[in-house]
Write a structure and sequence with these properties.
Radius of gyration: 16 Å
Helix content: 25-40%
Number of strands: 7
Mean pLDDT: 95
Distance between the termini: 35 Å
Strand order of the largest sheet: 2-3-4-6-5
């Protein structure tokens, strides 16, 4: 659907290790950290990956700057964000052709420390050797998706997320 373009990892790594927290900057509305937001409430932020190796790749994060995947959360907070991750994953699945949904938390105390979860839909018919971590590696290129298409995709996923919330209320 979209061609891949090379991704220069070196400046990205430098920025994540030495710059401000990109998630905190998104929540502050810093225009230098513009991302396509799918959902935001008082506790959580859901947005499209700015450098997607897969179409429909979404990130979910708490608004509060938490670093550790489990120990920085009270159990009820953790379960709440996991419920949101489930709902977002289902919204992505209903929006994007998906063979398998990858859900993982990446980051490090050394860079991208604000805890967040990746929801990455693997499209159908990807050869096995190009699945799993191989499909997530930006070193293999990122999709060249026009900004207007990213905005439409964020709106579609957001609509599905809202529809799912209505079905379950």
């Amino acid at each position: 659907m979209y061609s891949k373009r090379p991704f220069n990892l070196k400046p990205y790594v430098h920025r994540t290790k030495n710059g401000p927290c990109f998630i905190c900057e998104i929540t502050k509305g810093n225009p230098q950290f513009k991302h396509h937001i799918i959902h935001q409430d008082n506790s959580h932020l859901v947005f499209l990956n700015k450098y997607p190796p897969l179409y429909g790749y979404v990130l979910v994060a708490p608004i509060a700057h938490k670093i550790n995947v489990t120990s920085d959360f009270q159990l009820d907070e953790y379960l709440q964000i996991q419920k949101l991750i489930y709902r977002v994953s289902e919204a992505v699945r209903r929006t994007v052709l998906t063979e398998r949904m990858y859900i993982l938390s990446l980051g490090s105390h050394q860079g991208n420390s604000h805890v967040h979860w990746h929801i990455a839909p693997l499209p159908p018919d990807v050869p096995y050797a190009q699945q799993q971590f191989e499909s997530l590696m930006s070193e293999n290129g990122i999709l060249d998706i026009p900004d207007a298409e990213m905005a439409k995709l964020a709106a579609k996923i957001g609509k599905e997320l809202n529809n799912e919330a209505e079905r379950n209320s």
